[in-house]
Amino acid sequence: MEEKIYIIGHKNPDTDSICSAIAYAELKKKQGDKREIIPARSGDINDETGFILKKFNIDPPSLLKDATGKKIILVDHSEPKQRPENSDKGEIIEVIDHHNINFQQATPILFHAEPLGSTSTIIARMYFEKNIDIEKGIAGILLGAIISDTVIFRSPITTQEDKDIAQKLKPIAEVDDLEAFGIEMFKAKSNWKEKSAHDIINTDYKEYELGGKNIGISQIETVDTSNLKERKDEFIEIMEHMSKERNLDTIIVLLTDIIKEGCLAFISGNSLEQIGKTFGKEIKDNEIYLPGVLSRKKQIVPPLEKAFSQ
Amino acid sequence: MEEKIYIIGHKNPDTDSICSAIAYAELKKKQGDKREIIPARSGDINDETGFILKKFNIDPPSLLKDATGKKIILVDHSEPKQRPENSDKGEIIEVIDHHNINFQQATPILFHAEPLGSTSTIIARMYFEKNIDIEKGIAGILLGAIISDTVIFRSPITTQEDKDIAQKLKPIAEVDDLEAFGIEMFKAKSNWKEKSAHDIINTDYKEYELGGKNIGISQIETVDTSNLKERKDEFIEIMEHMSKERNLDTIIVLLTDIIKEGCLAFISGNSLEQIGKTFGKEIKDNEIYLPGVLSRKKQIVPPLEKAFSQ
């Protein structure tokens, strides 16, 4: 136990970032890795993740605020902006991800990214491929992360492999009904009333560099957008404040209704016209509705990347 | 057979780039991929690769000069500078590699890089993992590529997995003695006498962007450096010419003696002092000897990257 290795997801960690870090650390231990493998997180755990960890009786990972001098394995991201602080002063020794790729490193490492619904799908498959027993709790959080990231298999990022792996995890996690489990999870997350717009926006907020411009995109997945829609002025105010503070070109907040399957987007910044054009709609009063859009990664970022790089 | 997919290695293709492209295309076909999968190359085949393809009776891949509008799978590289021309006007749909990583793409794709001795090791393992029969010829070229990239298992990039996979390929390829096969291969490649310094340098030449500077590094693996050393003036002249033409900060030519296990490096450009310091030696008359150095990827590029980014 000489060497410490931290496995860590992206900033503003979501369920997949937290659960894949825990499950991958456990896998490495079960494979006999002699190093001290520590699952970690870059920020607070959201209500949904808290609900899942509690349900399966799994401890949350420890907080790693600064990666200076640390050896880290990135899960669920590769983007520099989403890595823990001072990652460039530490050493990235491995990456397992399912997102867009933005990575440069002169030393060759294991880097596996695959366009599946969640990083947890990849980690769960590793257990099955290597014939390593999955305990109930680990199966439960992996299942929760797959259901969370694929929005109960509704998101267009969902693949057959996500569904197959979920079916294999289901009996091990002793979950009877995936749909009911999913709705229960999303309800745990949709408890917005007591939260400030600032906290809601930052729950699942990511920054992207698109064509040289900093774009912030928050996604709020909920079973009902109406309560949030009423608070639009409060949201816009915070968004304008965040734009200045973080030097953003534009900030987008996606209110994703997983029942109606669509996004109401609040948008503030310099590139409203270009963003409206990208999605074939005019942005009125900082607002646009995008029916059928559930995935920031697949339906929002790639068209914006394309539009901004032209 | 609607869609055409090209599998292609880096510019100035070496044996691993050519053979992994052929073997990966074959694997995809055997897995029932319905698309038209075409192994391709970005440039001329070198003498070593030609020797291996002929020995195992495998056709060379077709030349793809321009990737505009093409769907491509990159093998054995991810660096923009090493991709085929106009790759940015085509679509990269997958990457399998064992080098440093330099990659940005907004659309998630399968990207698997692993610090093994060759890309062919990864491709061969896929055949074994998926229980897909390997034909003698394919086993032979994969084995040749592993032996080439690992310098008959002498290079520090060699892993236990490269050796294990080579041992599994050996009976299928009907090769009796890996060492003898390797020496035969490197001799086929060491036929420098009839070649111009320009052609020798460009046989395995790669460009890197290190700390904002363009550095060209050629590696010439040979069983005897003495004939090449005598032609130093001719080399330096060509190197100076290439530097101007390609806007290089510095150009390095590594004469790698695989028997003595070391590199004689010719170096020309602006950063001689910094490069000398990086390797703890003074560069005299554009020359430096690096004992024990066999791998550009592991022993040259990472220390230079570190030095140039400071």
Question: Could you give a quick summary of the protein structure above?
Answer:
Chain A is α/β, with parallel strands linked by helices.
Write the layout of secondary structure elements.
The structure is a homodimer.
Chain A: E1 4-8, H1 15-30, E2 36-41, H2 47-55, E3 62-63, E4 71-75, E5 91-97, E6 101-105, E7 110-113, H3 119-129, H4 136-149, H5 160-173, H6 178-189, H7 197-203, E8 205-210, E9 213-222, H8 226-229, H9 232-245, E10 250-257, E11 262-269, H10 272-278, E12 287-291, H11 296-308
Parallel strand pairs in A: 1-2, 1-4, 2-3, 4-5, 5-7, 9-10
Antiparallel strand pairs in A: 8-9, 10-11, 11-12
Helix pairs in contact in A: 1-3, 1-4, 2-4, 2-6, 3-4, 4-5
Which terms would index this structure?
homodimer, 310 residues, alpha/beta, inorganic pyrophosphatase (n-terminal core), Diaminopimelate Epimerase, Chain A, domain 1, 6-stranded parallel beta sheet, 5-stranded mixed beta sheet, 11 helices
The structural class of chain A is: alpha/beta
Query: What fraction strand of chain A?
Result: 15-25%
Oligomeric state: homodimer
Mean pLDDT of chain A: 94
CATH class of the largest domain in chain A: Alpha Beta
Gyration radius of chain A, to the nearest Å?
Answer: 19 Å
How many H/I helices of chain A?
11
The domain tally of chain A reads 2
The CATH superfamily name of the largest domain in chain A is inorganic pyrophosphatase (n-terminal core)
Taking the sheet with the most strands of chain A, its summary is:
6 strands, parallel
Apparent shape of chain A: globular
Tell me the total number of β-strands of chain A.
12
